[in-house]
Amino acid sequence: MAGRIARPVAVLVLVAAIAAALFISRRASRHESGAGSNTPPTSDVPSRGGELVASYRSEPRTYNRYVDQTAAADLLALLTQAPLVHVNRTTDELEPWLAESWTESPDHLTYTLKLRHGITFSDGVPFTSADVLFSFRALYDPKVQAVLAADTYVNGKPLLVEAPDSSTVVLRLPAPFAPGLRLIANIPILPRHRLEPALVAGTFTDAWSATSPLSEITGLGPFVLAEHVSGQRFVFMRNPRFWSYDGSGVQLPYLDKLTVIVIPDQNAEALRLQSGETDLMGNADMRPEDYGSFKRVAQQGRLRLLDAGIGLDPNLLWFNLSKVHADDPRNAWLRSKIFRQAISCAVDRQAIINTVYLGAGVPIYGPISPANRTWYVGVRPACEYDPGRARALFASIGLTDRNADGMLEDSHGTPAEFSILTQRDHLRARVAAVVQEQLRKAGIRVDLVTVDPNAIQDRWAHGDYDSIYFGTQASATDPSLTPALWFSSGEFHLWNRLQPTPATEWERHIDDLMNRIAVSADAAERRRLFEDVQRIYAEEMPVISFVAPKAMIAISSRVVNPRPAPQIPQLLWSAETLAARAAGR
After folding, report:
1. Rounded CA gap, 71 and 52, in Å?
2. DSSP H or E segment with residue 292
3. Distance CA 211, CA 214 (A)
4. Phi and psi of 112, rounded to 5°?
5. Dihedrals φ, ψ of 568, to 5°?
């Protein structure tokens, strides 16, 4: 999982669709190497050949992105699969990918996409519209329960996908949807010839399992998975049939080989990069305490440091508000809005920034990072940091020190205590430890439970927790593109997922606001409505945010043409444009 539940948080730029206007990228099937502010110096012009070694902190449970919601599965799909359209994460522009162009109807409900000619899967079988139809059949098959499906629904209804011929796909939306084709930018197109038998047989969820022969895995992405040693490494080889070229006519990817080593521990990950055993970290986030050692290595010319600004993916603390453990005697206060407000009020965010992040961060109070400039409004709660006010809030729900031991109890004498589930050997555990100490001073006992990311995923899915401090991974910046987080019925509605009807009036209000945001064609109106959503979050605090870290990225001096983005994976999102410096250059 790479330490994140994949998907929530989402567009810096709205899709400005012009009725029946033909959109053709000026790049067509070609990348412009070093786009944006990342143009390499002349000596670092990328060239074909060579290999790089990256690290990642976890591995996917399966090779099938449709049934694996982890960030590691998303990385695997980025490397080996491809969608119809693609969001450039450095510019946030929507770009043609497997579809080379499209038109949009005047009512904004129908998109007609023209597929690139001559593309084949990595096994040599031609790609056609039949593969697109198959992929959406699998996506919406109720037996599959694809983890990507919910984020493609509009007003609770799926897209209608048709194919008038082998190179044309028509997508019909059930209702207007402001982000347009960004809706499908994270849907990899799968090979019908490989997976249709499993879909027909009802075994699609077992297809491409982690024990499947790698010869069965084929895709339209820049690399082919050539080796997987569980718990150790993935080896990706260049896909010689990849369809994309750079601006000079060089076929991508540049690299012949990309090895991804699984290193769950951040200490070991940092040491291996500093020693030259790896070239980049897949998660890319450098811990503040590592900056000094990385800078010394950079001064020796063996590493480069890149400033990626404030990250888009703040970690979140949320409490279990589901019906699981509904008979817990602590629920009267543990699930109270006032309790959450008091927790937020008792935490000194600047102290976390100073001690854990060594000053490299900014305090935040909601789930949207300041890096998301279009949607962040900086709404603050009534109490930012006030230990006295926090004590008063606790007292208002019956939590007081009844035995003069400095810790709080409820009216039945039950200690005011709860557990925080978080990731071991990670910065999150250190933040949680600071929160634990600050809450102890406020009279609240906190038990820290540190486990690996997959264990967090399992316990979250089963509702087996008091609270979790973890992260979400941005796939886009427009909130309409991640309904699974914002809507009460969503798969990733973190604190109480998959509600058949909204459990609270405030969640019903958010559902209504999000529906209006999705259909409005007025950008200013959409932002105003989402500001209301953030105000509800500031009041109800279903999630509590503390810090938006500033991101520094360290890479080996061998890495050429990096294109850092604010979303994870900051570099491997565009692995096809990464290159390796030749020996002696």
Report:
1. 21
2. helix 291-299
3. 9
4. -110, 115
5. -80, 140
* 5-18 exposure pattern, b = at least 16 Cβ within 10 A, e = fewer: bbbbbbbbbbbebe
pLDDT digit string (tens) for the chain, length 585 residues: 344 343 333 322 222 222 223 323 323 333 333 333 333 333 578 999 999 999 999 999 999 999 998 889 999 999 999 999 999 988 888 999 999 999 999 999 999 999 999 999 999 999 999 999 999 999 999 999 999 998 899 988 999 999 999 999 999 999 999 999 999 999 999 999 999 999 999 999 999 999 999 999 999 999 999 999 999 999 999 999 999 999 999 999 999 999 999 998 888 999 999 999 999 998 867 888 888 999 999 999 999 999 888 888 899 999 999 999 889 999 999 999 999 999 999 999 999 999 999 999 999 999 999 988 889 998 999 999 999 999 999 999 999 999 999 999 999 999 999 999 999 988 899 999 999 999 999 999 999 999 998 899 999 999 999 999 998 766 678 999 888 899 999 989 999 999 999 999 999 999 999 999 999 989 999 999 999 999 999 999 999 999 999 888 999 999 999 999 877 888 999 999 999 998 755
pTM for the complete prediction? 0.75
* Contact (CB, 8 A) for 317 and 467: yes
Tokens linked to 167 = 């190179």
With H, G, I as helix, E, B as strand and everything else as coil, classify residue 392: helix
Separation CA 27–CA 34 (nearest Å): 13
- In the numeric block, the tokens 């699969």 are attached to 81
Residue 472 and residue 315: Cα distance in Å, rounded?
A: 7
Closest CA to 307 of 371, 374, 372: 371
Domain positions in the chain are 315-548
Structure tokens, 557: 């001096």
Neighbours of 232 (CB within 10 A): 11
Instruction: Label the pairing between strands 547-556 and 303-310.
Output: antiparallel
State the Cα–Cα distance between residues 124 and 144, nearest whole angstrom.
27
- The DSSP H or E segment spanning 262 is strand 257-262
Q: Supply the DSSP string of 469-490, one letter for each residue.
A: EEEEEES-S-GGG-HHHHSTT-
Which residue type does 415 have?
P
| Whole-Å CA distances, 521 to 178, 368, 493, 513 | 6, 22, 25, 14
> Which architecture characterizes domain 315-548 according to CATH?
Roll (3.10)
The verdict on whether omega for the bond into residue 253 sits within 30 degrees of 0, i.e. cis, is: yes
Task: At 396, list the tokens.
Answer: 């208002």
Q: What are phi and psi of 78, to 5 degrees?
A: -60, -35
Of 237, 197, 200, 243, give the one whose Cα is nearest residue 215.
237
CA atoms 343, 494, 453, 88: torsion sign: negative
Question: How many CB atoms within 10 Å of residue 340?
Answer: 24
